[in-house]
Here is the input.
Amino acid sequence: MITAFYNGVSGVKTAEFGHSTIGNDISNINTVGYKSSTAEFKSLFYTALAGASSSPVNSQIGLGSTKMATSLNFTQGNLQTTDNVFDMAIDGDGFFGLIGNNGEQYFTRNGEFTKDSDGNLVNRSGMYLLGTVAPLSSATLGESALNKLGVTGGNVEAYSIPIGDSIKLGSVDSQGKIQLPDVLYTPSSPTTQVSYSGYLNSTIYTEPRSVELTSESFEVKADKNTNKITITGDLNLTPEIHHPNKANNEVMITITDAKGQSVQIKASTQADGKFSAEFDNSNATTKLDLNGELTYLASAMVKQEVATPQTFTTDIWAPNGDKNILKLEFTKQVPQGQQIAFDAVVSVIGPDGNIISATQGELRYNQKGALVSNTLGTINNGGANLELSLGTPYNPAVPNTGFDGLKPAEQISAELSVSKNGRSEGLLTEYTMSDSGDILAVFDNGDMATVAKVALYHFQNNQGLNKASENTYQASANSGEPIFYTNANGEVIYGAAIRNHMLEMSNVDLGVSLTDMIVMQKMFDASSKSITTADEMIKNAINKLRLI
Here is the structure.
């Protein structure tokens, strides 16, 4: 009876412990990073019960059970997407490191972090996230950057950071607070190299155009005796005319005397490009004074070859941070000779629209479209020499040379590639993260820089961690000291991924927990019944003793 009583009492206490453990799990089912617990029990001391006879065989009867410990379940919880850039979820093994206001170190799977008023990454309890921060330098912003920030009449606290550098975590003991400035700045660097590759429009079309004739192309004779003027000429003597040998091209000659009186005389060309005309001054409505000096102006309406000009513009950066414009203008030379040639004008234009530097020359290609020569001169970008590459000239000894830059094409092509160095000044627009735990700064000039790296800690025995709160833990002698994983070269590696814009939710399985709760309730009911039964048996025994 007494044994049954002890068994019942221990069972009730044990069930109460199980209820508490399971109930705590269920209540934290929505707690980020929470890890479920399993209640563990042990048997109480056994007692030896002698047999009814002098038999040497004894029986052992247990005196119930009691709570022993709770074991933590560190299985992965579900990952849930969020809209907070500093929400992080560990996909795999490991813990975030925290420093409390008391200076003690904690560890957690809860990746809910935000920036506090000082720019430090903290959790909801105000504990600081641990990691390594890139070296920052104080920066003085120029007028352009201040205007972007909307700051006038003063300066702001700003920091500059190198572009392209990576961050190594270092040792476990060297990790500190992650502080992210509100204003990050990258200075500009001048553009000193620009290269183009693509196609120049080589298409030619014809259209009627008026071309002024050179004085060598025609002759005017005025006869004072007969009061007549005769005109003869040849379009072949005007080099600007592309196709002079054609009949019926209209030629217009304007003759002006010393008194300002003018007459226009029309003529038509023969098939060989020659033309002639006669003007009878005596019968003319407007009579010229042939005694004084006469001046002549002649033009021909002919079909000319016309090339389509092309203009390319590229933003470049001056040493002082100004955004200049590199402008390239190309026009194919017509009529085309044995080689294909383009007249080229290159200029650098400042922010005020004025030309800073300019040069002109020509690009010449062979019939296969390979660049033969480039006569463009040097050009200056606001104090920095600009190296402009339009292609490597053809070299018969080197295969495929002459085709790596700009090339002539018989149609308009949008295929144009520009590469250049230099960059504008950059101001921080946002922070983001990578799966490797890097916190990245994104700048308005397109640059990115690694600002910090989140530390990811591991333990030899996760079960040995001491639970400090529902989702924070501390190292113990059983867990061992926190460590970083390293590769064969001794470099720190994560051994897991840190997912940005995600949180690891609780790993509590509601169905399993409710089932365990029912089992514990049945245990409690059975133990309670055992106590009740033992109590009744004791009462009956006492009553029988009273009757003796």
Notes: The chain has four domains: 2-75+507-547, 79-187+426-504, 193-203+308-420, 229-301. Residues 466 and 474 are 5 Å apart (CA to CA). Residues 510-547 form the longest helix (38 residues). The helical segments are 2-27, 143-149, 510-547.
